[in-house]
Amino acid sequence: MKFIPVFDIKVGRREKKYVNDCLKNSWLGQGHYVSKFEDRLSSFINSKYGISTTSGTTALHLACATLGLKEGDEVLVSSSTNMASVFSIVYCGAKPIPVDISKENWQMNINDLKKKITKKSKAIMVVHLFGHSVDMDPILRIAKRFNLKIIEDCAESLGVRYKGKVVGSIGDIGTFSFYSNKTITSGEGGMITTKSKKLYEKAKKLKNLAYGKKNKFQHELIGFNYRMPNVSAAIGLGQLENINEIFKQKKRIYNRYKSNLKDIEGLNFPKIEKWNTKFIMWVMNIYLDKKFPLSRDELAKKLLKHKIETRSAFVPANQQKTLIKKYKSFRKFKCPEADFIMRNGIYLPSGNTISNQEIDYVCEIIKKIVKRN
Ligand SMILES: Cc1ncc(COP(=O)(O)O)c(C=O)c1O
């Protein structure tokens, strides 16, 4: 069997056609694919406005800046996430407050969130992790009670639904990533979505250096250049038009792994909660408990010997050395369930083009490793 990467992508016919259109007409920087991609994506997630950016990270920073987060503010954020979520808060001078996850479903733990609210809290950044939604109703209630803004980081959850509502359309601002390993890709890229005209106008201004209206070079705010190139938008649009096929592949991969691995003692799958009315696997996660004969790292090492690539779970914010050094109080923010997943979580090869035969091979090897130990 050839090497099985943890992720791969497929570029389709439409992406090639749209990119060729850009090249043929020299539409490289800004062009109509950008606005088309923004319109299609925002309507796909039932939001009103879409503002494209250069990455999921810049989308998050733009969201924080648009909401006016600043020094002295605290933002509650899922501890277990890609650190882009957490760093975007730091870029604005605000302080991230790591909130634990639930070990069962890997999403933000509402009880821990309640404990960590202070007078300085200004916003909650929920991260819909791995294609599963956060339980949003209690978060909406808490946000209302304490007057907090909500940013939904949907980088890993495009098209996912919470009680029928598409994530990214529930809070004040949703953010997306189109990096190559995301549900759809534009190579690099991101987007923010909102239903508020006021937030839309501010974000649009900030993203494009806040050029002046009367005199272009008299800038209205300290803005950024987070403009998505037209060529990237062309790829993103092509991918979006093929999203149902991508969903189909993801479902196939998830179901195949799950049925192959369901009877292995000590090997668990994150739970899919009832509120998550549309789950779309981002990557195939499992976590190991004491009944599993090997540690997560031993399993990863053995799989690699069989040319099977895997990835360990996130190191949560509360365990990040740079953040602990920056914020003295960080050590007191305990997140034991995020720590457990950091040690025991792993994801298996989940690229959209992985064949059933390759999935069966990965599962057979896992079973063999278990038998031998
Ligand atoms: C939850 C989450 N947020 C943000 C990002 C950052 O996105 P990007 O790599 O496009 O900057 C990622 C990337 O993997 C992510 O998983």
**Proper CATH architecture of the largest domain:** 3-Layer(aba) Sandwich
The CATH homologous superfamily of the largest domain: Type I PLP-dependent aspartate aminotransferase-like (Major domain)
Q: Main sheet?
A: 7 strands, mixed
The coarse silhouette is globular
Assembly type of the chains comes to single chain
CATH class annotation of the largest domain: Alpha Beta
Strand content: 5-15%
Which structural class should the secondary elements be placed in?
alpha/beta
Task: List how many beta strands DSSP finds.
Answer: 13
What is the helix/strand order?
HHEHEHEHEHEEEEEHHHEEHEHHEH
Task: Tell me the domain tally.
Answer: 2
Rg (CA only)? 21 Å
Please list the strands of the largest sheet in the order they lie side by side.
1-9-8-5-4-2-3
CATH fold field value of the largest domain:
Aspartate Aminotransferase, domain 2
User: Kindly, what is the distance between the CA atoms of the first and last residues, rounded to a whole number of angstroms?
Assistant: 23 Å
What is the helix tally? Answer: 13
- The residue fraction in helices comes out at 25-40%
The bound ligands are: pyridoxal-5'-phosphate
